[in-house]
Amino acid sequence: MSIRPLDLVTPTETFEIENGLSLVPRLRLKLTVFPASPSVTKPIDEWKVKRTLIDFLKTSLSVPITVPEEDLQIKRFKDLKKRKRDDPLAFGYLFIRDLSFIQKNKDEEEDLTAMEEKFLHWRRYIADKMDGIELNIEGLKFKLNVAVPVSDDFQGMKKAWEDFFVFGNRGYSRGGKQEPDTIVLRGVPSRWFAEPRVSSKPSMLVTHTIFSSFGKIRNLNVAEDDDLGKDATEDDSVIISGLHCMIVVQFEKYKDFYNTLKVLCCRSMQKEGSRLRADYEVTWDKDGFFQNTRSRLEEKGGIREIAAAHYRSEAPRHQREQISRTSPDDMRRKRFKD
């Protein structure tokens, strides 16, 4: 399929990629609920917090925003009796998926930069209006903290890697200016990156096909990721909705890394024919994933192990297919909930 140039994609439009996948824009905010008084130790009622916040979005913003209940996640922390006086009681995320209120100016042609500024303006506005509000739940008072998640703050990540390469004095480029080139993506369903009717485990070949449309790949690693959801809260009966995988992709060019990360930020992933929406986490690799893994394998004397662990973009097809079957069989499985 023909992929639209990444540097022309506005933050409010859906971006279709390979394998029936699409990146759908949304606004996400991280929520943390604190007690207004240190003496509050009673478990918080998540449902009533959700109803209070949904009503606030409808009535207290300059543009009323309707959020379905499933797009507002509130979960209480474990062991509230052991908490310190200033510790939060609950956390969660607010997703605003209908961005129709962020409209282009009809009187003038707005470019990409103008739309980006408008998107960021609305995110700041909603976050500022919600941050610090007092919630009165069953006679108990709580305070809400609202922030933009690190994974959704592209400009924040950009500043972080610029500072890192200036003060950290390390880079992954082959000579010249030190710049990041590797993206880490977590929280996408494994079966969306698997070979149909072959396995439910993520495939190197399928993953390479999807991400090579963003730019030329130097290295790629994909594996099942069971670390997500380890912070499950008490009374939380919902297990993570399916097998997830972690994808680490290293591009040949900084430009492709930059544009891909920017498009992945502030979006969720959907697959044609599925009701599941993957609200993944994305960041840049500052730990030298491929360098460190290669060093560990070389210490074990394993050129073949290196080939099995990482997909080289120049590898022939039969090697890719062999590598795609190397995922461990003993990984814990969770059932998808479409």
TrEMBL record:
Residues 311-338 have a biased composition (Basic and acidic residues). Residues 309-338 are annotated as: Disordered. It comes from the Eukaryota. It holds the Pfam family RBD_AKAP-17A. Transmembrane segments: none annotated. InterPro entries: AK17A/B. This is A-kinase anchor protein 17A. It comes from Cannabis sativa (Hemp). The gene is LOC115713541.
